[in-house]
Design goal:
The chain is mostly helical. The protein has a domain of 64 residues. The protein is built from four helices and two strands. The longest helix has 18 residues. The radius of gyration is 20 Å and the shape is elongated. The N and C termini lie far apart (69 Å). The chain binds zinc ion. The site of zinc ion has 8 residues, from helix 3 and helix 4.
Amino acid sequence: MAKKPEKIQRSWVPQRRAFERENNNQEFYNSWPWRKFAKRFKANNPLCVKCLEKDLVVPVKVVDHITPIKAGGAKLDESNCQSLCASCHNSKSSGESRGYGVKSR
Ligand SMILES: [Zn+2]
């Protein structure tokens, strides 16, 4: 009984790695290519599209990925992006995890 059980294979390590990948999105949103892309996208799409549907003219605050990156959406593709204001982006982000709910006015 002299051996210490130190060489146990930690099978949970790879799983943890996969989990960490989600945090890489934050890195991406701070990256140069994205900032440059978002700046140009905002210039081309200066209004929140969700508000426009309700006949509201609200300046864009964030460039949102229609198909989220973590769901395999294209990162730097304008056809996968939409302009949102802060409140529309917040309601979309909070709605994504529980399925998209109908937002009351
Ligand atoms: Zn909006």
